[in-house]
Each structure stands twice: as C-alpha cells, then as structure tokens.
Amino acid sequence: MSDDSLTHRDRLPDALRMLLEQYPRDIWQSHRNFDGLTRFWLERHMMFRQALAQWQGDTRAFIDKGRDARAHGRQTARLGGFLINELHGHHQIEDAHYFPTLSAAEPRLAKGFDLLDADHHALDSELAALTDAANTHLRGLGDKSADTRANAARMLAQLDGFERFLNRHLLDEEELVVPVILHHALKF
Questions:
Q1: Distance of alpha carbon 142 from alpha carbon 10, whole angstroms
Q2: Of 25, 60, 72, 110, which one is least surrounded by beta carbons within 10 A?
Q3: Rounded distance, CA 38 to CA 187, Å?
C-alpha cells in the first residue's frame, strides 16, 4: 500500500487524476465553466505562495546582515501573521463547504477530498511549528543576548520545509478541485 500523505507524495495518486486528464491545467481559464470564484480561489493560492516567498526572502536578507532587525521584525510579524491566519481560514472554508460539495458532485473522487482534508491537518502541525519558530525569533530580536541570526536560520529552515508541503498541497488541490468544477459546472 502506498503512502499518499503530504509528507511522502510527489503528485496526486493516478486514481485521483482522471478528471485532470480531461481538463488539463492549460485549458482551465478558457473553459466555459471557469468563473470568477474559481479565478479568485486560484489567486488566493498564488497569494499564499507569494507571501511565503516574501517572508523567506526577507529572512534571508536579515541572516545575510543586509536587513535592519526592526524592519525585519515588523515584516516577519506582518507576513507571518497574514499567511498563517489566512491559510487557517482558507482551509476551514474548504473543509466545511467546498470539499463536501465537490465530493458530493463527484463521488468517485471522494478519497481525494479526504486526502486534501488530511493535508490540512498535516499543514496545521507545520503552521504551529512555524508559528513557534517565528515567535521565538521575534522575541529574540528584543533580547540583546539572543543569537538572532541562529533564530532566523531556524525559522528559515521551518519556512523552507513548509514551502514544500504547501506547494505540494496547493498543486494537488488545484488539480483535483478545478477539473471537478469545470466538469460539473459548479457554482458556489
């Protein structure tokens, strides 16, 4: 039996890609059933990727001693709070509303939506670890005896690990959700 957990998979299992084969990514935006809400949802995913990249870049700039500690602390608090809170809210809406609707519309892919729900739980653990690393780093910025570069490096390592999980989840989610929406002309 294969391990399809977020930690181990490198793409959606083949059994969950049947609609993706009919509705490949390159036709999504031109498809008649691609609407504003689907566009908005994909833009939210892009926003998560961009916020994470900004946070990583700012942290690298701090570690390399080119970034002011106060400005970096403000950026870490702003980007970290935004990304973590927005991801939690986004996942709650998906788990409570979108995934049940999509699963009911396409029961053959119900296991895929269960997989995405499990991803959310795995991401919650990663987000908690990221929050801890960010808070440790932010507290250290105000403590003259703290090794702020080492704290920043630990936070960056957490960010870099989280990036792999987030990207894998977002890609898989897009490749499962959008084809179902296009196939069934779903409106939310």
A1: 40
A2: 25
A3: 9
Confidence of residue 2 (pLDDT cuts 50, 70, 90): low
Residue 51 near residue 83 (C-beta atoms within 8 A): yes
For the chain, give the number of residues: 188
Are 108 and 18 contacting, i.e. CB atoms less than 8 angstroms apart? yes
What the block records as the tokens of 96 is 């409570």
Q: Which residue has the tokens 């973590």?
A: 84
pLDDT tens digit sequence for 135-162: 999 999 999 999 999 999 999 999 999 9
Largest CA distance in the chain: 60
Helix axes 36-63, 69-93, angle to 10 degrees: 150
pLDDT reported for residue 151 = 96
14: DSSP letter: G
For residues 167 and 80, give the distance between their C-alpha atoms in angstroms, rounded to a whole number: 17
Is residue 178 within 8 Å of residue 23, measured between CB atoms?
A: yes
Residues 177, 18 contacting (CB under 8 angstroms): no
What letter represents residue 156's amino acid?
A: L
Report DSSP state, residue 23: S
The tokens of 177 are what?
């959700």
User: In the prediction, which pLDDT does 1 show?
Assistant: 45
Q: Give the H/E segment covering residue 115.
A: helix 110-141
Structure tokens at 15: 């059994």
pLDDT digits (tens, 9 = 90+) for 18-38: 999 999 999 999 999 999 999
